[in-house]
Write a structure and sequence with these properties.
Strand order of the largest sheet: 3-2-1-4-5
Strand content: 5-15%
Radius of gyration: 17 Å
Number of helices: 6
Order of helices and strands: EHEHEHEHEHH
Length: 137
């Protein structure tokens, strides 16, 4: 399950593309109200996640219970500091990977797809540098 909670100013096509790719990989999409509505309007099946005070189980409960495996939460500035903070703290406390940009989410979903297709390979950073430098390192 991937939890998507994206600021209204960032709910563009990139969000839809990222969510669709996660769904195509078999991820369950969980989203807060505004994000869920935007995704549903674009044909992506989502389940609503409650923020603190909106109902139970809320998204912190779901993170704590091991129901969320990846969090994508784009910060919305000062007005959303409390939302961003409790989501981030829950992800860190319960060791759930946490991404704060749609570019990072896109890179993650592409990487997951590549690994599932056996096209990806994990290597130390030094080997990438060696390959780029022509083996001179």
């Amino acid at each position: 399950t991937v939890l998507l909670t994206v600021s209204s100013r960032e709910r563009r096509q990139v969000l839809v593309d990222v969510a669709r790719r996660f769904a195509d990989l078999g991820f369950r999409i969980l989203a807060t109200e505004g994000t869920a509505k935007h995704l549903a309007e674009n044909g992506i099946a989502t389940e609503r996640a409650f923020k603190l005070g909106e109902g139970r189980p809320d998204l912190v409960d779901q993170i704590k219970n091991g129901e969320v495996h990846l969090v994508v939460n784009t910060p919305i500035g000062r007005q959303g500091t409390s939302d961003d903070s409790y989501i981030r703290k829950a992800a860190i406390k319960y060791r759930v990977p946490y991404i704060t940009t749609l570019a990072g989410a896109k890179a993650a979903v592409l990487g997951i797809a590549a690994m599932r297709n056996a096209r990806g390979q994990v290597q130390p950073l030094q080997s990438y540098h060696r390959d780029i430098a022509g083996g001179n390192q």
